[in-house]
Amino acid sequence: MSAKTIFKKIIDGEIPTDIVYQDDKCLAFRDVRPQAPTHVLVIPRKEIASLADATNEDSPLLGHLLSAARTVAAQLGLARGYRLVINCGPDGGQTVDHLHVHILGGRPLAWPPG
Ligand code: 5GP
After folding, report:
1. 98 given a catalytic annotation
2. What is the pTM of this model?
3. Is the CB of 86 within 6 Å of ligand 1?
């Protein structure tokens, strides 16, 4: 069995984390190394390693994560807009093997990303 990811430890309450939203399916917390004035991660409680590992059965959960991200963005006052990012796999820049949606906002964001 593979070791717990850092995000599973956060779900299990083993690491102090600034949680800004939670429900029965997901939680959202501030990124420890923020890349924008507001940088929050939304993660499912279910352990899914990456978007590529999600199945069609997970589609309602994936929709729920987007709805939660919208709720969090509104809650945090990102009225001027924000960006959602899902890094997937090594080339996508994913560093934690637990599916997560980044919410970035609080400043104008450049495009394209690096
Ligand atoms: P990825 O690069 O996989 O898309 O994003 C992982 C994110 O998790 C990074 O932005 C990183 O700063 C964040 N992160 C890694 N470890 C921790 C932690 O222990 N606590 C919090 N709050 N964020 C973390």
Report:
1. no
2. 0.97
3. no
